Amino acid sequence: MQTPDNPRIIVALDFPSDQPALALVDQLDPAKCRLKVGKELFTRSGPELVRKLHARGFEVFLDLKFHDIPNTTSAAVAAAADLGVWMVNVHASGGEKMMTACRDRLESFGKDRPLLIAVTVLTSMGPGDLAGIGITDSPEAQVSRLATLTRNCGLDGVVCSAQEAPALKAEQGADFKLVTPGIRPLSADKGDQQRIMTPTEALKAGSDYLVIGRPITQAADPLAALEAIHSEVVGL
Ligand SMILES: O=c1ccn([C@@H]2O[C@H](COP(=O)(O)O)[C@@H](O)[C@H]2O)c(=O)[nH]1
User: Fold this and answer.
1) Is the keyword Iron in the record (predicted)?
2) For residue 171, is it within any domain?
3) Is 175 annotated as a binding residue?
4) Angle of helix 18-25 relative to helix 39-55, nearest 10 degrees?
5) What is the gyration radius of the CA atoms in the chain, in angstroms?
6) Residue among 170, 174, 176, 234 at smallest CA distance from 200
7) Is residue 146 part of a domain?
8) Does 3 map to a domain?
């Protein structure tokens, strides 16, 4: 349930620098949302920006989608844990050894470790995109396969589309976290996302966390857009 203790909306801060990001963040309430820092903003503004978000009371999902050899990736998730982020991620297609190394490396952080999740199939991809990289299974089947691998490696959950949430909750269990981008209120532009759902549909389907970027950050009134989504899902 979306509560002040566990806000399930994660606002994707896809901005080119910390000034516009902080201008939005300073209007937001940590009881209503968490924040996601991705590749563009982190590459520009780095750990210092994450510290500024923490100082404002927000929990941060560091969405750098690490994908490398086990030694490199596990060192990267440890660096994220040192930064004190709430959640960090890797690509499940990095495989069992890579994911297990990351999980093992985070054990030394004890109960303060970040949630470790794995990206399955990007929400911008459809069947044709998968075929283009040699995967002839449907997105649903590929997501399911990678989610099973991720759970067997002891990670906390996956990034997937909300469309896969009902099957994944049934297959992987209620505790396995589903973090779902590709969230689009009915009036919002789809953009480059293919596997989408509305906020309400996504939570009803079994999403644990809704990652929402442009429908909030590119809205004429970002605060009003977030408030509308918050009111739609509060209590779900
Ligand atoms: O499969 C994925 C994994 C990550 N993302 C990220 O989520 C946000 C979505 O932003 P919107 O503007 O709401 O489309 C963005 O930061 C992506 O990097 C994803 O979309 N799909």
Assistant:
1) no
2) yes
3) no
4) 40
5) 17
6) 234
7) yes
8) no
For 222, the token pair is 């970002």
Range of the domain at 200: 9-233
Residues sharing a CB contact under 8 Å with residue 46, sequence separation 6 or more, in sequence order:
none
Provide the ipTM: 0.99
* Residue 39 counted as an annotated binding residue: no
Catalytic-role residue among 68, 129, 137, 169: 68
User: Three-class SS of residue 179?
Assistant: strand
Residue 94 is part of a domain; what is its CATH number? 3.20.20.70
Tell whether ligand 1 has an atom less than 6 A from the beta carbon of residue 65. Answer: no
The gap from C-alpha 40 to its chain's centroid, in whole angstroms, comes to 15
Among candidate residues 197, 233, 200, the one with its CA nearest the CA of residue 123: 197
Residue 57 contacts by C-beta under 8 Å, 6 or more apart in sequence?
Answer: 30
Alpha helices by DSSP H, 69-113:
70-83, 96-106
Q: Is the pTM value of this prediction over 0.90?
A: yes
Do residues 208 and 179 lie in contact, with contact meaning Cβ atoms separated by under 8 Å?
yes
166-215 pLDDT, tens digit each: 999 999 999 999 999 999 999 999 999 999 999 999 999 999 999 999 99
